[in-house]
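Sample entry (453 residues):
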Amino acid sequence: MGAALRDESGKLSLTTKIMLGMGGGLVLGVILNLMQIEFVNTHVVGGFFGMVGRMFVNALQMLVVPLVFFSLICGVAGIGDIRILGRVGGKSFGLYLATTATAIAVAILIALLVGPGQGFVMDGVDTTGVTGKEAPSVWDTFAAIVPRNPVAAFSGGEMLQIIFYTIILGVAALMLGERSKPFVEACEFMNELMMKVVQIVMAFAPIGVFCLITKTFTEQGIGLFLPVMTYVLVLVGALFLHLFVTLMIFLKVFSGLDPFVFMKKIRPAQIFAFSTASSNATIPVTLRCVTERMGVSNAVGSFTVPFGATINMDGTAIMQGVATVFLANVYGIDLGIGGYVTVIAMAVLASIGTAGVPGVGLVMLTMVLNQVGLPIEGIALILGVDRLMDMIRTAVNITGDAVVTTIVARTEGQMDMDTFADPTAGELIGDNLGIDEKAEGVLAGAAHARPAE
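Predicted structure, serialized as tokens:
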């Protein structure tokens, strides 16, 4: 085993264990899918593996609301200046919308050039139970950002409402000055406490990932790809193009950072995103990667990462673009330039306030199809492969979050370049998931983060 896969004590790193769990789950899942043993599929895979996988995802989601709340309070307080906070928020919002719009525009262009779905035969496709969802107006989308009941927003996991409320609370704390110091210190302690809980949950990550991947491939298999292979190939190609080319161009142009170093350091978050298919559940890992591995100050990272997990849906937007072209070709409907411009606008607007949880892409797709007049029943064509595609596009989503976070931190002078250049910074080490004292300082708040040199 290569030295890069082990820590200083010679043990396998946690990232390596997770990758082994993912690979093992894929192999076992394909084998079990081919064997089709009813007892094993029902009680072992659907029962035990399904239970362990759900427990792991639930444990990650359990962390999201308190972690976002306390880290965001620390981030706002750490920025310390309302004007700087507004600048960071404006940059983040603009970059997130720009990457999403670019993603779906490129995806539509690729799909139009390749033409997936042409000549597809609908015979035998089960469209039972496929229903649409009416698209909300632009005004309803923005009005829903403000919670009527903050407690209900927290209990329901309405992330954009939680972020809005928490930012308002943090700004109010800034306005109170010294009197808010005990409150901020308490939030910093709770932030550290939540990161310790993250470490405990992540100790079980290899097992959780193994069970999730095994269950997915046992149930889905390879055969589901064949009828919609052109859709799958175009979608995967567009996702990879955005991941390895478009986002890296954004990173290089706006921050000047090395994309190869960035991709190596964001890999743990990509693995978690692929396994869970949930941007929200991956927030703790994404936050850890950008702060401890890349050197982004906690003040910026704790603001932009949860914000991005809520409004930045690059991968999902790509899926909507490719799926729209695919279904338009299947039904022989010419949407025209105006129709595709509508798709781009709808996808960008729908991404704002949409929960970063598994399967949300299909809900957003029904809104887009309704808007351009395509039959909702066509979604049945891609339902079978959507879970696997969801895993890939979630990895793209969180990579976009990390790219924007890094750009904002770099342009604001809130990034430690020594940490970014250090290949071992913030690595997850063996079975010892404790964060050292230096890393704890980073997580405690912006006051502990060093400026860029």
